[in-house]
Amino acid sequence: MRPLPALLLLFVFSVSVFAGEAELLTSGRAALEKGDVAKAVSLFEKAVAASPKSAEAHFLLGRAYGAQAQKANVLKQASLAKKVSGAFERAVELDPNYLDARQALVDYYTLAPGFMGGSNEKALAQAAEIKKRDPLQGHRAYSRIYLRDKKTDLARKELVDAVREQPNNPRAHQSLGMFLINTDKNYSGALHEFEMALELDPAYMPAYLRIGQHAAVTGTDFPRGETSIKKYLGHKPSGEEPNLATAWYWLGMLYEKQGRKAEAKQSFSNALKLVPDDKNVKEALKRVS
Questions:
Q1: Number of C-alpha atoms within 13 angstroms, CB side, residue 260?
Q2: Which of 43, 75, 128, 288 could disulfide-link 28, Cβ–Cβ 3.0 to 4.6 Å?
Q3: What domains does the chain contain, in order, with CATH numbers?
């Protein structure tokens, strides 16, 4: 048998490495979603070792380290914090356009204390880089920074500006709606934004979930809220969309508000299967059990 040409061998090797990395990342994501953080860390570390120049592998490893830190004691958190920021920073070095990694750094820099590398200056610098590449994402990043700094007016202004700049973008209306419902408690304004998102794009699924959330929070229009959330539950969310655990949680809240405890219990149980460590879901399930 004649030996394979060198270029063909290199191609076969490259495909094998890529397939191995993809499998590790897929398995790692599944472990992280199930709350098996230790397994996720192990898988993502292997993925980084196999493909050290993969920005995605570093980003996911940073997320797994972050989940690990949430469960660790204070001393362990300090050492894990360096791993979290290091993984996200490396992802950005490898791919400056990786906005999820830049957003993760915004969150890290605004939430971590100074001795762990937290810095509003660094967070603002990342927000500026995000805005250069995606204006809407940039507005959202700035809004999060200002909100955590208790500068509510500035946080709101970023999202209002985003809608003014991109009035036909359903994601812009969705972002403003979420601020109005969660921060301002402006429920009528929030519903208007969610409905505008659907008017612009009837296939924009996150707006259905938020209309259901609005019904649960305000105790109004339960039938529409239930139909909307169930529509979202029939959808497979993309990476930037709310997960199905969130949808099950709000469906449970909707049922609880109506006194439908058995259905609420089932919905909260479904959510807990997807996010076993979520305190809000655990408390909700306990209320209706």
A1: 14
A2: 43
A3: 44-133 (1.25.40.10), 215-289 (1.25.40.10)
Q: How confident is the model at residue 36 (pLDDT cuts 50, 70, 90)?
A: confident
Residue-wise pLDDT for 194-208, tens only, equals 999 999 999 999 999
Helices 279-288/244-257 angle, 10° precision: 30
Alpha-carbon distance of 93 to 2, in angstroms, equals 42
Strands (E), 154-268: none
**Phi-psi domain of 141 (left: phi exceeds 0; alpha: psi -120 through 50; beta: other):** alpha
Cα distance between residue 146 and residue 156, in whole Å:
9
Per DSSP, the three-state class of 208 is helix
- Total length of the chain: 289
Angstrom distances, CA of residue 5 to CA of 13, 16, 62, 251: 12, 17, 39, 59
